[in-house]
Design goal:
Pathway: Protein modification; protein lipoylation via endogenous pathway; protein N(6)-(lipoyl)lysine from octanoyl-[acyl-carrier-protein]: step 1/2. This protein has 224 residues and is an alpha/beta fold. Helix content is 23%, strand content 27%. The protein has a single domain, classed as BirA Bifunctional Protein, domain 2 (2-Layer Sandwich). A hairpin with a 2-residue loop joins strand 8 and strand 9.
Length: 224
């Protein structure tokens, strides 16, 4: 099997959603995942969405990376089943949740993480920015600043959770945490390099790059 794409293209459903509460989308992801565990013939899915302000901790995340008292928090905080440390979601950050059956691609989690990074690197390249990987870490950086975080969960080779690309968010929310548990790396948004950028413009580029990297044909779907 090729390291770059599945053997043949197949259809992947694209849900291009607006601002959705984090927990609503989490429940939706879990439902999509369970349906695909029970029926491996169901099509793959990718959800593109933004969230109201929320902090999430991975399954084994260290709460010491929060700069506030978790028990007396004024912020929405959720511990979820993905890997990785604490992260922050808010409007202006584009979040992608692929629900993929990796048996169609490669049953290799490192391969999958690198493919997600490649999607984001290709998006950045379309704007003339050089996205970089840092050895030993997961995510994408521009000029040493982290612009995209990745955290996944895989059950029976079906994926959930995904990536978060800082497009034009209010970055002050990141000041309340040690993002992804990395103390010596700054976080940034694409707006630092492209001041007038917004998620509406970035969405089709993310979809296009995702389709190319994973070798799928996207079909737009709306929630009924």
């Amino acid at each position: 099997m090729s390291d770059n794409s599945p053997i043949s293209p197949h259809r992947c459903l694209l849900y291009n959603e607006g601002l959705k509460p984090y927990l609503d989308v989490l429940v939706w992801q879990r439902q999509l995942l369970q349906e695909r565990i029970e029926n491996s013939d169901l099509e793959d899915v990718i959800i593109l969405v933004e969230h109201p302000p929320v902090y999430t901790l991975g399954q084994g995340a260290d709460p010491n990376f929060l700069k506030f008292d978790l028990d007396k928090s004024e912020y929405n905080v959720h511990r979820v089943e993905r890997g990785g440390e604490v992260t922050y979601h808010c409007p202006g950050q584009l979040v992608g949740y692929p629900i993929l059956n990796l048996r169609r691609y490669s049953q290799d989690l490192h391969w999958y993480l690198r493919q997600l990074e490649q999607v984001l690197i290709d998006v950045l390249a379309s704007y003339g920015l050089v996205g970089e990987r840092i050895s030993g870490l997961t995510g994408v950086w521009v000029e040493g600043k982290k612009v995209a975080a990745i955290g996944i969960k895989v059950s029976r080779w079906v994926t959930m959770h995904g990536f978060a690309l800082n497009v034009c968010p209010d970055m002050t929310g990141f000041e309340k945490i040690v993002p992804c548990g990395i103390k010596d790396k700054k976080v940034a948004s694409l707006a630092e390099w492209i001041p007038d950028i917004d998620c509406l413009a970035v969405r089709p580029r993310v979809a296009e790059c995702f389709a190319k990297v994973f070798g799928v044909k996207l079909q737009d779907v709306k929630i009924c």
